[in-house]
Design goal:
The chain is an all-beta fold and 115 residues long. It has strands at 3-7, 10-12, 18-25, 33-39, 46-51, 57-59, 67-72, 77-82, 91-99, 102-105, 110-113. The strands form two sheets. Strands 2, 4, 5, 6, 9, 10 and 11 form a seven-stranded mixed beta sheet that branches. A four-stranded antiparallel beta sheet has the order 1-3-8-7, with no helix packed on it. The N and C termini lie far apart (39 Å). The relative contact order is 0.32.
Amino acid sequence: QVQLVESGGGLVQPGGSLTLSCVASGFTFGSFSLRWYRQAPGKEREWVAVIGIGSNTYYADSVKGRFTISRDNEKNTGFLQMKSLKPEDTAVYYCNASYGSRDYWGQGPQVTVSS
C-alpha cells in the first residue's frame, strides 16, 4: 500500500537535462523529508539532495549548482531536476521519504549520461 514510484530516468548527452519524479501513496507525504540518492556500478550509495517538510534544501558538493530538489505536497510528488549533466552522474537514482522510524524507497530508475 505504501509506495514511492519514480519516473523520468533515461539516456541523456553530457550537458543535457533530466527531471526525475517520485510519486508517493499510502502515507502523508507532506510530513516526510525527501531525499535523493544515487548508486553507480561498483560504488557505494551516495546521498545527493534533501528537502525538508519546510522546503529547506541541501545538496552534495558533487551536484550543487546543477541539481534542484523540490516537492509538491498537494500532489504527493517529489522532483529532482538535473542540468549540466556529466558522465559521472550516471547512476541508479533512488528517492527516499523518511519520518522518524519510517523510511520508504523508490524503485530507482537508471540515469545514463553518455555521448
